[in-house]
Amino acid sequence: MKHMAVQIAEITDHLFLSGRGAITSERLGLLGITHILNVAEEIHNMNYPSDYPIICHLVAMKDNSSETILNFVDECFDFICDAKKIGGRILVHCVAGISRSASVCIMYLMKYYNLTLLNAYNNVLSCRDCIYPNTGFWRSMIEFEFNLRGENSVEMRPYIFGWRPNVFPSDLPFLLRGWMDYILAFYTRHILIFLLQIIWLCFT
Predict the structure, then answer these.
(1) Tens place of pLDDT for every residue, the chain, 204 residues?
(2) Which of 78, 79, 156 is nearest to 117 (CA)?
(3) Which residue in 56, 76, 81, 94 is the catalytic one?
(4) Which of 54, 126, 146, 165 has fewest C-beta within 10 Å?
């Protein structure tokens, strides 16, 4: 994962994804990047290292669960599509290339490649295995998918540490997957508390 985090991932033949730290003049040149879309509110320096002119655009998004990415994606899509029309190659980045820029790429695949949210997420994940959109972005992407397709391939479910999308591997030890696990965990906890109370009463 560390190796992937410092690389520029190729999502399609014209769309690329990374964090700010992965951008070097050598990588931009090798990939033929002509346009850069910065979706990080806190990165204002648009002077990228490059041996040739690059068209840049800032869409100032915050990376928190209260941010509504739906308010920004049309502007992102317009920039990407305009660049694609003239044969451009577009790099989308935020600070780490994990949440904001990854979400934009996922939603782009959903709209322009007719992918479900689950398939789009897995597609981007296979190219860059460190992506992890925040909970608010997941809710927005689920709403976006329903508006596009009239159905959802991903849903938010209760996990031990709050609500999360049901896309994570089942072998993650710190997550409880789905409603049944949540219900079982709830009743197991109360049964254990009840047994401890009985034991305490027996010895007092």
Answers:
(1) 445 557 999 999 999 999 999 999 999 999 999 999 999 999 987 788 888 999 999 999 999 999 999 999 999 999 999 999 999 999 999 999 999 999 999 999 999 999 999 999 999 999 999 999 999 999 999 999 999 999 999 999 877 667 889 897 654 444 444 555 555 555 666 677 767 777 777 776
(2) 156
(3) 94
(4) 126
Chain centre distance of CA 67: 13
Contact predicate 178/166, CB 8 Å: yes
How far apart CA 174 and CA 194 sit, in angstroms, is 24
Architecture of the 8-168 domain: Alpha-Beta Complex (3.90)
Q: Are 36 and 52 in contact (CB under 8 A)?
A: no
The verdict on whether 127 is a catalytic residue reads: no
C-beta of residue 111 within 8 angstroms of C-beta of residue 148: yes
Nearest CA-CA partner of 57 in 26, 93, 22: 93
